[in-house]
């Protein structure tokens, strides 16, 4: 069953100035990995390296998640897989890590889990361009992230998976593999990759899994799918149609929001709904 909520944006009390301070840390002259390290250092996050099934992953931990009964797990979007048409980026790491900034506004113990070959591991011998282009949501990627996350947690912990854009894709795919997941939250998530590719005239992601083609998640998992009315990358109607097949789902619509900006100002309000 799908519950839809249209959120009036002028009714929300925000921490917008805090997000502006964080945004000042992201500059064009630094690498994505350096930007993330600077944000993490400022916020007091612990940076760790975790080996998944086939890859190493950068992760940042907040407030000793190992000892908490509920852990929020943040998954970043795709960053910049392509510089322009037919030219693959050498480093897809995002220059403005939205999910790391959102984690800084979250009072819960949390983990920011990096994707294979992102941040400082893009030069690993098993990292190929396909892992951030056509195979960005492949079994290999999802299984490695799942393995890395499970190594950081206790078996009795409950998880909230939160993903932005392509990170929402991965969050949905990971949720089906981890029994501890109680809630999934996607922010402008790419929940039907075939429809998204067709909309933009992109080559289909043949090496990737499409959440829309997978079995619906268990009804025991709560789902919150957040869309922006001004999002041109993943339009709200694409998200709404994708989640119709799911159960125990809430669709949150922000009429004035775009794909990337400015979710920080609404994050405390969104977290209050989730919690």
Q: Which structural traits does this protein have?
A:
two-stranded antiparallel sheet; 275 residues; Rossmann fold; globular; 9-stranded mixed sheet
Task: Describe the overall structure.
This protein is 27% helix and 22% strand. With 275 residues, it is α/β, with parallel strands linked by helices. The protein has one domain: 3-Layer(aba) Sandwich (Rossmann fold), CATH 3.40.50.1820. Helix 5 (166-175) links the parallel strand 8 and strand 9. The radius of gyration is 17 Å and the shape is globular. The relative contact order is 0.17. The model is unreliable at 13-29 (pLDDT under 50).
CATH class: Alpha Beta
If you average the pLDDT, what whole number results? Answer: 89
Q: What is the CATH homologous superfamily assignment?
A: Alpha/Beta hydrolase fold, catalytic domain
Shape: globular
**Cα gyration radius (Å):** 17 Å
Q: Architecture, CATH level 2?
A: 3-Layer(aba) Sandwich
Residues in β-strands, percent: 15-25%
Largest sheet: 9 strands, mixed
Major β-sheet strand ordering: 1-11-10-9-8-4-7-3-2
Please provide a brief summary of the model:
This protein has 275 residues and is α/β, with parallel strands linked by helices. It has helices at residues 16-23, 32-43, 98-104, 139-151, 166-175, 193-200, 236-243, 267-274; strands at residues 2-6, 46-51, 56-62, 70-75, 82-84, 87-88, 110-113, 158-164, 181-187, 222-228, 249-254.
């Amino acid at each position: 069953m799908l519950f839809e909520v249209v959120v009036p944006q002028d009714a929300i009390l925000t921490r917008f100035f805090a997000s502006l301070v964080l945004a000042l840390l992201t500059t064009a002259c630094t690498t994505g990995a350096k930007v993330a390290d600077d944000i993490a250092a400022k916020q007091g996050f612990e940076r760790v390296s975790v080996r998944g099934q086939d890859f190493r992953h950068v992760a940042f931990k907040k407030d000793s998640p190992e000892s908490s009964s509920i852990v929020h797990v943040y998954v970043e979007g795709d960053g910049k897989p392509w510089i322009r048409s037919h030219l693959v980026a050498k480093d897809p790491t995002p220059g403005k890590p939205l999910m790391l900034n959102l984690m800084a506004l979250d009072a819960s113990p949390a983990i920011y889990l990096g994707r294979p070959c992102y941040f400082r591991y893009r030069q690993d011998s098993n990292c190929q361009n396909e892992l951030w282009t056509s195979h960005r949501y492949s079994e290999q990627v999802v299984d490695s992230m799942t393995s890395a996350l499970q190594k950081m947690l206790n078996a009795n912990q409950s998880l909230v998976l939160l993903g932005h854009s392509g990170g929402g894709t991965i969050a949905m795919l990971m949720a089906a593999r981890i029994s501890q997941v109680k809630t999934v939250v996607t922010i402008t998530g790419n929940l039907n990759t075939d429809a998204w590719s067709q909309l933009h005239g992109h080559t289909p992601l043949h090496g990737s899994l499409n959440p829309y083609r997978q079995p619906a998640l268990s009804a025991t998992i709560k789902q919150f799918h957040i869309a922006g009315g001004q999002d041109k990358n993943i339009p709200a109607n694409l998200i709404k149609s994708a989640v119709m097949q799911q159960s125990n789902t809430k669709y949150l619509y922000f009429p004035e929001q775009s794909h990337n900006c400015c979710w920080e100002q609404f994050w405390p309000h969104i977290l209050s709904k989730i919690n």
